[in-house]
From TrEMBL:
UniProt cross-references to NCBIfam families, sorted A to Z: PRK09414.1 (NF006929)
Gene3D superfamilies: Glutamate Dehydrogenase, chain A, domain 3 (1.10.285.10), Leucine Dehydrogenase, chain A, domain 1 (3.40.50.10860), NAD(P)-binding Rossmann-like Domain (3.40.50.720)
Keyword Lipid metabolism: no
Glutamate/phenylalanine/leucine/valine/L-tryptophan dehydrogenase C-terminal domain segment(s): 202-442
Matches recorded under SMART domains: ELFV_dehydrog
Entry keyword annotation includes Oxidoreductase: yes
Pfam family, one: ELFV_dehydrog
InterPro entries referenced in this protein's UniProt entry, alphabetically: Aminoacid_DH-like_N_sf, Glu/Leu/Phe/Val/Trp_DH, Glu/Leu/Phe/Val/Trp_DH_C, Glu/Leu/Phe/Val/Trp_DH_dimer, Glu/Leu/Phe/Val_DH_AS, Glu_DH, Glu_Leu_Phe_Val_DH, NAD(P)-bd_dom_sf
Descriptive protein name: Glutamate dehydrogenase
CDD domains in alphabetical order: NAD_bind_2_Glu_DH (cd05313)
Amino acid sequence: MSYVDEVLERVREKNASEPEFLQAVTEVLNSLRPVIDANEEVYRREALLERLCEPDRQFKFRVPWVDDKGQVQVNTGYRVQFNNSIGPYKGGLRLHPSVNIGIIKFLGFEQIFKNSLTGLPIGGGKGGSDFDPKGKSDREVMAFCQSFMTELCKYIGADTDVPAGDIGTGAREIGYMFGQYKKIRGLYEGVLTGKGLSYGGSLARTEATGYGLLYLTEEMLKCNGHDIKGKTVCVSGSGNVAIYATQKAQQLGAKVVTVSDSTGWVYDPEGIDVALLKEVKEVKRARLTEYAAARPSAEYHEGRGVWSIKCDVALPCATQNELLLDDAKQLVANGCIAVAEGANMPTTLEATEYLQKNNVLFAPGKAANAGGVATSALEMSQNSERLSWTFEEVDAKLQNIMVNIFHNLDDAAKRYNMEGDYVAGANIAGFEKVADAMLAQGVC
Ligand SMILES: NC(=O)C1=CN([C@@H]2O[C@H](COP(=O)(O)OP(=O)(O)OC[C@H]3O[C@@H](n4cnc5c(N)ncnc54)[C@H](OP(=O)(O)O)[C@@H]3O)[C@@H](O)[C@H]2O)C=CC1
Ligand SMILES: O=C(O)CCC(=O)C(=O)O
């Protein structure tokens, strides 16, 4: 049995109740086969893959807080510190009722390779809780965040582990968590990214994941003889990534015709009105029905359906496993030429395979959405320097990083005779640096 198959079998046995983690490991290890085969003796002796698939450590803790009625509520908090071979653990905090240890492990595992691809010195980690900020008052969110950080602050630090936002964790939550960290630890340091601009945040971090997605998509299209200008784009989600992906796509001359949330989706053939979307989602924290009610050209539909709309480019920006095999078939039938993942692992393994077999350009999340964490690393640099760069400086660095990521993964795929397989290219390019660092640092 090959080394990859042996490790996959062991990982499946040990983590049988964590389907998302198994999906992520299976995708990565399968596409690394040519690299592993070429170095099998060393990697096997050093148990490199076994070490890569086992987090350095994981914390699980109780998060008690008091709601507005005086009732004590209890949630579960997690932080998985997966791999710090190339830098301090770095990755977001997800607040969503679906959060469990398997989801946090899949996200932390993906983060190792994504962070490596940025070219910046950051390791992989992720955390979160099954707390749902939706429908909670600001005071309730603050009570939760303070309790969450009361425990989390024992394990993190500016040079140890630097969390950030993810689903359900935006500027409000990061602010409450930063305040509690400072109060307990007595340290004013860059322990979190995505901070407000008045207390150490970086300009362009809010926009970075969505903008970065478009910079990489634009480069991928250009290198394959297409222009983003004039393309019709379907976006899913309507949160941080989706909003700024929509904004940048329209700035680059494309037309975005859909967005969605967990209850429904909007089709707006005249192009999504970003100012209205921001008002509904960022200011009012309301449902998309409010967008449709205020916009005569928009249709609102319950449930899911974004991928049924004819488009040239599809940008899944909501959550994991939201683009299924039937959706991939529909996209191909409608003439879609490119899919780039704004979310983490939004496309199932079967759907990815189908898209690639049908010559759809496919940019995996760990490359396509790396602009968020890359800009977080730029925020860390600014905090260390005690300086703030302008929006234009940060945006120019982001653009450069995304273009480099595309060329690095394109080159890696070509080196292993897998030209055009950007999934393999991203995994190989991300893995090589981490593997080198792990080998150089000995058995640890
Ligand atoms: N923020 C960042 O910098 C980065 C985020 N990502 C990834 O991008 C994705 C989106 O994150 P972000 O925009 O920050 O999160 P937000 O919380 O801002 O928005 C999430 C969006 O996805 C929708 N959504 C969430 N869960 C589900 C679900 N189970 N089914 C259907 N829709 C759902 C939400 O709808 P509703 O409001 O109804 O819940 C909302 O529209 C995630 O996969 C995240 O891990 C990746 C890199 C960086
Ligand atoms: O900015 C960060 O540190 C993390 C962003 C994130 O969670 C992600 O890349 O999935």
